[in-house]
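Worked Example 4.2. Consider the chain below.
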Amino acid sequence: MANATDKTAVFEQALQDAGCGDALKARCCECYEDGDFGTLDRLLQKQKQTLLNKVHEGQKQIDCLDYLTYSLKKKH
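Applying the procedure from the previous section yields the following C-alpha cells:
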C-alpha cells in the first residue's frame, strides 16, 4: 500500500489497481510528472475502453451460457 503522503506512489497504486500494465503505468507516470494531462487523459480513457470491452465480451459469454442452459432445460 502506498504512503498517502506520496502523491506519485498513490498515483502508481491507482494505476495498478486499474489494471494498467508496467508499460502503461510508466507512460502515465511520465505524463503525470510532466504535467501532460491531455495525453494522460487519453491513455486512461483507452484503458477504460479496454476494460469495458472485456466486460462486454464476458457478458456475451454469460448470455451464451444462459441460452445453452435454457435450451437444455427446455429439452429435458
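Helices lie at 7-17, 22-34, 37-75. The radius of gyration is 19 Å. Compare this with Example 4.1 before moving on.
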